[in-house]
Amino acid sequence: MADKFTELEDRLLRWTDDAERENLGEMLLEIHAFQRTANSGYRAFCDTRPAVRDWRDIPALPQQIFKQCAVRCFPAEETVRTFRTSGTTGEGYGEHHFKSLRLYKAASESGWMRAGLRRTGVLALVPDAVEAPYSSLSQMASWLAPSSAFFVRSSGRAWAELEKRIDQASQPVTLFGTALAFLDWFEWLECRRLRLPEASAAVETGGYKGTRRALSKEALHGMFGERLGLGADAIFNEYGMTELSSQFYTAGVGAPHRRPPWARGVVIDPETGCEVAEGGMGVLRLFDAMNLGSVCAVQTRDLAIRAGEDFILIGRDPKALPRGCSRSADEALATRNEAP
Length: 340
What we know:
Layout: H1 2-15, H2 24-38, H3 40-47, E1 61-62, E2 81-84, E3 95-98, H4 102-114, E4 122-125, H5 136-144, H6 156-168, E5 174-177, H7 179-189, E6 201-204, H8 217-228, E7 235-239, E8 248-251, E9 263-268, E10 281-288, E11 297-307, E12 310-316, H9 325-334
Parallel strand pairs: 1-11, 4-5, 5-6, 6-7
Antiparallel strand pairs: 2-3, 7-8, 9-10, 10-11, 11-12
């Protein structure tokens, strides 16, 4: 079983360099067969579902299962890292266990570049992986940005340092952080306006749920334009979650989130369990070939509109509990002692 894991991992790593290397459907079916064999709990879950004839038939594990039991296709003692969803608001937290971080790292870096984002000049408004070891978002940011490029507000000094870094920048920069962190920074800036170097960008990861603050995406993106001089095509949203290894990106408001070659978002009619027609709305089901050590199909609680092989994100099902990797990063920020 360990040999099969390594074989699949090596093939998936090569895929991040060559978009045409594998067929997504065939790869998902092969990964599903491995995961069903390696995880007795998931096998029992699958046994209650119809037979799998197509990759779309792969039983998708509900997100909430990640906070009820260990979803793992390898012995527990081989776990090298565990990431957690948020859990400080009383709903508990989910855990995603990793036998290796190689696939998560490759998917994060390759997905970032495939979205058209630069690997140089990244400035992060999240804690780094040392400060927030259970945050998958912080780990991703630590691969994309050097340790000197993290600006976490424990006092106004960090925001002042970020402003200074931008003022001195002569090359393009990419700001990367949660929506809440950006809102805090914009409020700290007050009426000051900065101008980023040509070809700069910003990437926000959403997330106000469970807090006392809220701002529409249109209003937040308007701040990026007003305060930083960024056009709509330079303001990105990154959609990911602790239970996945891959991310989906969109630029501007209301545009589809684009998938990397090894992942797919399918919009499901909750009544029939089938994919909705083009332009239809339903619940988002995510397939991620890089999720080798857990499950490659996850049923989310997010609503979306089908847009070809991509999706337009609507937001959290109002009946769902607030959670997510952005929340986790924001809660890590909240544990710091803030000075006036």
